[in-house]
Amino acid sequence: MVDADVPERMQAAALDEFGGPEVITLRKLPVPEAAADEVLIKVLSAGVGVWDVYERQGVLVPEGTEFPIVPGSDGAGTVIAAGSQVTDLAVGDLVYVSATTRPKGGFYAEYAAVKAEYAAKLPDGVPAEHAGAMSTDALTALGGLDTLSLPAGAWLLIFGASGGQGHLAVQLAKRQRLNVIAVASGRDGVALVTRLGADVSLDGHADPAEVLATIRDAAPGGVGGILAMAGGKTLDRLTETLSDNAVVAYAHGVRPEPRERSGVTVRAYDGVANRQQLQRLNELIEAGPFVVHVAEKFPLGKVHQAHKRLETSYLGKLLLTIA
């Protein structure tokens, strides 16, 4: 089924060469068509993440992509066409998407066609616009929690808790009935993770000795695992609070990687976008209020400014507004 009002061309932010933020420019491109296993989405918003920078630089380019490249693996919007093999989504559904493979272009555009398996109906409690910035980081956080596989009631330390992935991990961990120690960035970061339900909220820039003492007071038996969205000396010190045979799970791309030490296992993790994980994510989200904290919004025509903003410090996520 296809919405009758689909135009032939759309506005998109695309690049014809790899380079800095200036290579992404607005232009008119054909609206992609949905194949039998795809949906065509009228985009409401798109997330902006470091992976978009890697794509812009030519480091992580989706398989099958050709110039002009329309970046954007995260997005949300309305299904306006569904292929003949699509049975779980229909025209009119509000969806959010995580699509690392998208040969027909990404979400920096008014329309995007992606495989239906990468899309899920928008769960209750998440504003449709904010959902455009949620999927990749939320699925990655879920992958990290799966890697740790801590039992309910265990103590989890989240390092980088006020960032894009971290603030979502705090909420998902609480839905798994974990006790969360959130190490955030600055006063604003501490305030954010406290508001999101962290049991103990700490400033990663504070005196390391005081941070360690607070963690040991909260979890005298030791922390069961660390979910690390950043690396460095502070993280290395925090591993001193772990219980025996605990695990440090770190997101792929974290530099420097956490160091192995006696009694501590270090594992890398990533997110997986498929129907099963999206369904699990939706079930966790719908268990209570869920916040996708958007630090700043940019219109599509200001995408180069959004990419420059990625190089600075901010809480939560950055968002492109399309519709």
TrEMBL record:
Source organism, top-level taxon: Bacteria
Keyword Oxidoreductase assigned: yes
InterPro entries in alphabetical order: ADH-like_N, ER, GroES-like_sf, NAD(P)-bd_dom_sf, Zinc-ADH_QOR/CCCR
Recorded GO MF terms: alcohol dehydrogenase (NAD+) activity
Keywords on record: NADP, Oxidoreductase
EC number: 1.1.1.1
SMART domains (alphabetical): PKS_ER (SM00829)
Enoyl reductase (ER) domain segment(s): 19-320
UniProt-recorded name of the protein: Alcohol dehydrogenase zinc-binding domain protein
Organism: Micromonospora lupini str. Lupac 08
